[in-house]
Amino acid sequence: MTPESAPMTPTASPVLALKPLGFPWPTMDPFLFCAYHDDAYPEGNGQMGPGASLAGRQIGQDFSRKDGWSMYHGADVPGFPGHPHRGFETVTIVRKGLIDHADSLGAAARFGGGDVQWVTAGSGIVHSEMFPLLDSTAPNPLELFQIWLNLPARNKMVKPHFTMLWSETIPRQVATDTNGRTTEVAVIAGRLQDAAHAQPVAALAPPPDSWAAQADADVAIWTLRMAPGARWTLPPASGKGTRRQLYFFKGASVVVGGQAVSSHAAIELQASAEVVLVNGGSEVAEFLLLQGRPIGEPVAQYGPFVMNTQAEIAQTMQDYQRTQFGGWPWPDEAPVHGRDPARFAKHPGGREERPAG
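Request: output the structure for the sequence above.
Response:
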């Protein structure tokens, strides 16, 4: 039998599973939760709330998406008033609009437009995340991801910490295929090196006690934006035992590892394989990538508390009732930071920072 006539050996697909996107999105260890918010808020009312009737909404618990937006747990300004966390981290990527952060450590921030806030809740923090609608003459779109990354048992009770990754400093790589079509990758966590670039792109440092700070954890959080018709090869993960999930959330149709995907989906990939991505549609396609080596420990969760055992959950609830994780130094449960749109962060202890430029 000549080589030309030899039967082809089927190549195993790098696509292991596809799941439809709902709310929240499905995740895998070491990730606990991933929510995508895309709200078409109207013009503001002058008090940073929506300039539209709230009739028909269950205020305090509005996830209705009525008219394309929700108030969530907000009463006047949409968002999430003060609530506790223990035992994990939140990574909040704001693509459009602004978030006002306040917490029980006395820290505050206003961030958006590509900024990322990374909070290690550790032993316990109370924080609020409000969505001020500053423009009273035009719509106030808001688009963000919030990702929960677990902490290993040894770090569940570390001191709370928050880090700002300003959009201006987040590393990005733009790859151009042979037809001149581009794929842009924003590297929020991890390290990217594809075949077209000699130098790897490494993310800014994660918080010191994060699972992502462990070199062998192989955590990556990337966003991908592919021009219509673009082709790009997702390089293999470097870690042993890494799991990888690719979320296709904007665009009409793509091809992932040779498999056509015509609806938005969570796509589990073989992390050790390179995967060719093709945007087969006539509009931009966008993805979120989450990967990491599983922590592999028991997970006991009660709402915003994530520990390893039910006994630890019971202790957490007792601790919160007794200490309120340091109390709440703000005048109300849903503070917003005025009408100045400038982004800033004020850390515990008073240190202030603003994005460069």
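The first helix runs from residue 310 to 323.
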